[in-house]
Design a protein that fits this description.
- By secondary structure, the protein is an alpha+beta fold.
- It has one domain.
- Helix content is 35%, strand content 35%.
- A hairpin with a 2-residue loop joins strand 3 and strand 4.
- The protein is elongated, with a radius of gyration of 17 Å.
- The protein starts with a strand and ends in a 5-residue tail after the last helix.
Length: 115
């Protein structure tokens, strides 16, 4: 996986919330005193990834949240087993609401698009 891989998606008429993940290339295991996590990663029992939750409004990214150094049995397990996923969704949705509240003209100016 060299790019983000879509794991989960929720859609409404105008919005989508997407959870995707990519391998963690800069993993710090200095806290793994007994080596069991490193062993689990080497054996494939665990995977390390960067989690990303995005909110799209009419196809445009309006909010995003990232969390690196996630270590779970799978990215899908991250959804079920961690409170981090719910926190990331809340954070991305809050950012999207702020983005959606801005006037369209201001958004175009921020994005560098001529009005």
């Amino acid at each position: 996986m060299s790019r983000y891989e879509k794991i989960w998606r929720f859609e409404t008429a105008r919005c989508a919330v997407i959870f995707d993940a990519m391998p963690e290339d800069d993993l710090d295991l200095s806290w793994d005193d007994d080596g069991s996590v490193a062993e689990g990663l080497a054996s494939g029992r665990f995977c390390a990834f960067v989690a990303r939750v995005r909110v799209l409004i009419d196809g445009d990214e309006a909010g995003v949240s990232y969390l690196g150094e996630c270590i779970y049995t799978s990215p899908g397990a991250f959804i079920d087993e961690s409170g981090y996923f719910r926190d990331m969704v809340r954070e991305a949705v809050a950012e999207a609401r702020k983005t959606a509240a801005r006037p369209r003209l201001a958004l175009r100016q921020i994005e560098g698009v001529a009005a």
